[in-house]
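B., you asked whether I could sanity-check this one before it goes into the benchmark set. Here's the sequence:
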Amino acid sequence: MEAPRFGLWYDFRNPAQWRQPFPNLYHEILEQIEWAETIGFDSVWLTEHHFCDDGYTPSPLVLAGAIAERTKSMFIGTNLMLLPLHDPIRLAEDSATLSILSGGRFALGVGLGYRDLEYKAFHRSLKNRPSLMEEGVEIIRRAWRGEPVNFQGKRFNVPDVRITPDVSDNPPLLLVGGMAEAAIARAARIGDGFLSTQNAHHDMYIDALKQEGRDPSSGRIFAGQWIIVAKDPQATWSRIGQHAVYQLNEYISWGAFGPPDQVPQFESAEQIAEAGAYQLINADQAVDQLVDLIRGRPEIKDIHIWAQLPGEPVSSGSERIEYFATNVIPKVVQQLNS
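And here's what the prediction gave me:
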C-alpha cells in the first residue's frame, strides 16, 4: 500500500506575549521548512486569516512562492484559503503562476471562512458564502482550462477573457475544506479532494462521493492532524500547552466551532488534553494510530501536523519535527509496504 505524503502546517502567528520580530520569525520558519524537506517531510500547508493581532498569515500565496524557491520536491498547498474573500480571476492567475514556478507542486485548497470582520472588510456578506464559493470555483476551473472564462452569475460577471499563464496541460488540484455537512458535500461535488480537520468527517466525505455518483476510490483526503508527538508527551505538553490554549481560544472567539457565546473557552492545557482537542502521543502510538488511519481510509493522500503552536519557539517545534521524521514516518511507510 502506498504511503501518503507527510507534511507540516503553518499559520505564522506571532502573539504579543511571545512576540519576536516578524522578519526573524519568517526567516526561521523558511529555514525550518527547507531543513524539514531534507529529513523526510514532503509537503507543507499554509492557512489564511486577516486582521489578526498576532499576524496570522494574510498572504499564503506569497509565502508559497518563497517556499517553492527554497525547496526541491516538497508539495505546497493551502489548507486553507478563504475563497469568498478573493477575486477568483486574480486567484486563478496567482495559482497558475505558483504552479509553474514550483514545477507543478502547488495545490489550491479553499474554504468558506466564518469571521464577519473579514467579510465586511472585503465587501462581502456571510450569507452569500455558498454562492461565492460555487461561482469562484467554476471561474477558477474555466481559467485553468485555458478557455475564455465568459461567466455571468449571481456574484461575479467575468467577460470573455482568457487567463495566462496557461496551465491547461497540468492544472493545480483544487481542494475544498469544511466541517459542516453541506461543506463536505460541496467538497465531494466540486473539489479535487477534501481538506479535513482531524479525522471525524472522512466517512461523510466518502458517503458524499457515493451520493454524487463518483467512485469513492477516486476521492482524495488531505488530513490535518491535531496531535503532539514527542518522546515524553506529558513533559512536552507542560512546556507548550499554554500555546495551545491561546490557539484554540482564539479560534473559539472567532466562531470557528459555533457561536462564541455558546462555545466555552478552555481554561487550561490539561482541559484541552482531557477533551481530546489535541492528542498527546509518543512515536509508537503515532505509528499505530496513523497506520490504522491510512489502512482504514486509503483515500488519504497527505497527513500534516502543526509545525509549532502560536508563539512556541521555532526551535521547540523543530525538536518534534525531527522526532517525527526519525521515529514515525519511516516506520509508518515500512508497515504500509509490508
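One thing to flag: DSSP finds twelve helices and 13 strands in the chain. Otherwise nothing jumped out at me.
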